[in-house]
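Agenda item 2: iron/sulfur cluster complex prediction
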Amino acid sequence: MTNKSKVQKRKIIYLVKPRGFCAGVKRAVEIVEVAIRKYGVPLYVRHQIVHNRRVVADFEKQGVVFVEKINEVPKGAKIIFSAHGSPPSLYKEALQRGLTIIDATCPLVTKVHLEAKRYEKEGYFIVYLGDKDHPEPKGVLGEIKASSAVLIENLEDAKKLTLSDKKKIVILTQTTLSFDDTKEIVIYLQKQFPHLTLPPAFDICYATQNRQEAVKALAKMVDVILVVGSRESSNSKRLKDLGIACGRPTYLVDDSSQIKENWFENADKVGVTAGASTPDRLISEIVQYIRKSGVAVEELEIIHEQISFALPIKI
Ligand code: SF4
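Presented output:
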């Protein structure tokens, strides 16, 4: 059977909303675009501006240089800090090197930085739930003394915590975690440490929660789910895990070259979503690829999103 005839078995593709770029990612990408127009290239960005390979590759083609270490940037140059947030030590190092910093940290990540500092000042011990290799926890935990916090990644880590000597404990989290897994861990910790404090609002951001809710609804309607996003993207990985947890075969793909036709065998309904760092053009390319045979495409809006963040006054 040819690829085309397999594709023809599908009857409909549901393109779920919300999907793709969130307000923080849109803002960070726009900051780089404005900076290119204003200052030209080479322009330096510390870490991937957002965790999407296509976004990074497109900027590289325009002359943007992505670095991990501050000392890779020539003295006196401009550097943009990524949406994921950075520890204060990097700001200090950049300034000492005479660099001009343009900060693309998402305001919702900055909120967690400020919470960490405030709770530490108030004498709290911080239990921070996040991925140890992701830049976001490194930025948040870099705001406070190592002795003021512990990083846990999952329920197993939570079960190993011994905090009986801590009078004031608060839990903060990375913005892109699984809402359901986090809830389970928080409930467990509340039972163990009844005096545990939660911040006024959950740190998992609106975009992460909305995309997860949309995938739960989508899973009830489709046979297979495609998540468009990069493996570096924490929220994209969570969407894939959630689709699987909802009982649907779910695949995370960067682009159409990673799609395997046998994923769609016996699938009449295919659901498509995308992580918060995935640009629309990539989602469109994938939809075009899998609808080659003229299969219908339907938008499925689960939650209406209208949030946007203003650009910094000075870029
Ligand atoms: S996923 Fe949430 S925290 Fe991360 S950049 Fe987007 S809005 Fe900000």
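Discussion summary: The CA atoms of residues 6 and 265 lie 7 Å apart.
Owner for follow-up: CH.
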